[in-house]
Each structure stands twice: as structure tokens, then as C-alpha cells.
């Protein structure tokens, strides 16, 4: 059986005066995994820990068999934060060319990433003049540059219209079909059905994990929102 792409054991993270993650354990296999939980439950903090951007107090975080933050993981992980992290005054192609140089990958990778996110026709447009959804796709293209084995996406569909959301989820599945693990955080429970596997999170802990079917069956709830409420009530 394939080893998990991410393995987290007893991770404790303190931000400010608060223990945001009080000893969380979880794993992420290949495929599309949804990390779902209400605003403020610690999703971003957990994702930052996986990509090595978060100071952790204790516990272990392994990604692709290496400690999180290792240099060896630099091109193997793609991370898209909630705020678009591309240059507004450069075109789509210029942004991709810049980040390709930073990552040390060839210009063909830049072209392929723009194609993958469906922005080939906007290649020469300045990013600042694109729509919100198009800008998020530029960030996603940057994250795809190193052909990552793990793609970490922090609420990538917030504020997008239903058609764009559907297109993005299709893209996540195509990426996962190519062999990568895709971890997507969301506080929108109806996105759960689009995932192979779910991690339901509350107050810094995982309260359920399994496929959407398994979680519904376990709780007897008709949908994931109902299952979440059931689990919160049970706790
Ligand atoms: N820089 C910081 N300093 C102190 N506390 C912080 C900091 N950033 C976040 N927190 C706190 O950590 C907790 C978890 O925040 P986090 O951003 O991980 O949650 P989240 O589940 O991603 O929320 P959202 O869905 O709203 O993005 C929150 O209570 C927040 O107030």
C-alpha cells in the first residue's frame, strides 16, 4: 500500500496566546482530500505547518517522507494561500516566467501550467486587470510549476461563481489523477461531496475522517453539514 503523502503526529501550534492546534494527528493519502471546518478552527495554521511556514511547538509533520520545511520539498509542494501571491503589474506569462526562474524550472513548465488552469488565452494580460477568479488561477498556475506531488490549497474557491468553482474542482481532480495528492481547505460544506476523502476539523482537532459516504453513514446524516453538526453535538 502507498505510504501517506502527509503524516502529522501530536502537532502543537501556539499563535499569540492561543494553542491553536492542541496536539492534532492526521494523514493525507493520494487523491483529493478536503479539510473542512468553521472559520478560525485552525485550517490555515495546519496548512502552514505542512508547507514549513509555521513555527510549531511540538509534534512531527512529515511530507513525502521528509520533515516539513525540508529543502528537498521545495519543488515537490505547491501552496496557494488565500491571498493571491502574484504580481498585479506583470502579465500572466511574465509572472509565470519569473516564478519558473525562482524555482529553477524550464519555460515549458510555465506554458504547461498556464494551459492547465485554462488561462492560455489570457497569457499576455496584466494580472491586475483579470477577474478575481482568473487571478486565483494565476496563483494556482504558479503552484503547479514544480509539478508538485502535494498541492495545498487554502480556500481556493472562496468568492468564485458556481461555474468557476466546478471548473476548479475538475482541475483538482485532473491533478490528482496525474498522481499528486491535493489537499483543499474549505468552510463550505457542500464542497465536501467533491472530495475522495474528508478531514472534518473543529477547534484545532480532527473530529472525523473518511470518504463522504463513510462519514454520512457513520452519523446517519443526509449530508456532510448534517454529519458535522451531529459530530459537534455528540462531542
Ligand atoms: N498571527 C496570529 N497571531 C495570533 N493568533 C492567530 C494568528 N493567526 C491566526 N490566529 C488565530 O488562530 C486561530 C486559527 O486561525 P486559522 O487562520 O488557522 O483558522 P482557519 O480555520 O484557517 O480560519 P478561516 O477559515 O477563517 O481562514 C484563530 O483563532 C485565529 O484568531
From TrEMBL:
It holds the Pfam family ABC_tran. Keywords: ATP-binding, Nucleotide-binding. SMART domains: AAA. CDD domains: ABC_DR_subfamily_A (cd03230). PANTHER family: ABC TRANSPORTER G FAMILY MEMBER 20 ISOFORM X1, ATP-BINDING CASSETTE, SUB-FAMILY H, MEMBER 1. One of its GO terms (molecular function) is ATP hydrolysis activity. This is ABC transporter ATP-binding protein. InterPro entries: AAA+_ATPase, ABC_transporter-like_ATP-bd, ABC_transporter-like_CS, P-loop_NTPase. Gene3D superfamilies: P-loop containing nucleotide triphosphate hydrolases (3.40.50.300). SUPFAM superfamilies: P-loop containing nucleoside triphosphate hydrolases (SSF52540). Residues 6-228 form the ABC transporter domain.
